[in-house]
Amino acid sequence: MRIAPYWLACVAALPSVCLAAGSCERLVATASPDAPPYAWRDPADPRKLIGASVDVLTTAASQLGVKINVLYAGRRSQAQDEVRSGRMDILADAVLTEADLEHLDYVHPALALNDYLVWSAQGSATGYATLADLPGHRGVISAKARLTPAFATFAADHLTLQPAENLTTTFQWLSQGKADYAIAPRYAGAAAVAALGLDGQVVPREVAVDRPGIYLAIAQDSACNDGWLRGQLAKKMTELAATGGIQAILQRNAERWKQQQQVLSGAAKP
């Protein structure tokens, strides 16, 4: 278990006051570095992460009077390991899995339900309106997609889905006719389509085929994990969801990522 420096100093100096406070003064969080609009590396400072999950967490922490740093910890698996081990306190974009229940305490409600939609070429003869329309057609999906176990099992059993390196490649394959449809998240998909200049050429169907929850999750081995922190974060998440604050944060960060991708795409052109 990692013992936060604050607690070491606090317990040595005035233990009764520290225990009454019921919280740490500083938290360290991380997330997947390639999960827009929830989290991605800050182009201005690659040591840090930005995105909707980061904004929600920092907003909640500031209202609680807790300082927080959201840092890049490597690829998704490395970020997960840092939190599972307790070396970092919070995973800001966790997907609920049975295995991680042994290591993480999930904050409810979910930050968002990440709608995965079916995307196809405008004017496609096949409507792809439901899951029943997909078997027998060539699909593509990012290898980084985080699906619910139920849908992953359905896809493996009934769909022909080729894994692409990322969302950009996913939509390039679709636009080039290498796939009949793509399965991609609503916000990140729209941003990738816009960045590629494919607006109006590639369109989503409005029925979500999968809706994995995106959660804040606290390491069970974190020295900061206590009932006060879990309860206060749950309260703030409930308040943000009820007032529409989370939706606004998601939309703002989807636009933020899209603009960054357009700048990067423009810079790459000769």
How many separate helices? 9
- Following the backbone from N to C, one meets helices and strands in this order, namely HHEEEEHEHEEEEEHEHEHEEHH
- What Rg, in angstroms, do the CA atoms define? 20 Å
The strand count comes to 14
Q: How is the main sheet built?
A: 6 strands, mixed
Low-confidence stretches: 1-22
Q: What is the distance, rounded to the nearest whole angstrom, between the alpha carbons of the first and last residues?
A: 51 Å
Structural class: alpha/beta
Helix content: 25-40%
* CATH class placement of the largest domain: Alpha Beta
Reported by name, the CATH topology of the largest domain is D-Maltodextrin-Binding Protein, domain 2
Mean pLDDT: 87
Principal-axis shape equals: globular
What does this structure look like?
By secondary structure, the chain is an alpha/beta fold. The protein folds into two domains: 5-112 and 214-268, Periplasmic binding protein-like II (D-Maltodextrin-Binding Protein, domain 2, 3-Layer(aba) Sandwich), CATH 3.40.190; 115-210, Periplasmic binding protein-like II (D-Maltodextrin-Binding Protein, domain 2). Helix content is 40%, strand content 25%. It has nine helices and 14 strands. The protein has helices at residues 5-13, 15-21, 52-64, 76-84, 149-158, 167-175, 186-195, 227-242, 245-268; strands spanning 26-30, 34-35, 39-42, 45-50, 67-70, 90-94, 104-106, 112-113, 116-121, 138-142, 160-164, 181-185, 202-210, 213-219. The strands form three sheets. Strands 1, 5, 6, 7, 8 and 14 form a six-stranded mixed sheet that branches. It has a five-stranded mixed sheet with strand order 11-10-12-9-13, sandwiched between helices. Helix 1 crosses helix 2. The longest helix has 24 residues, at 245-268.
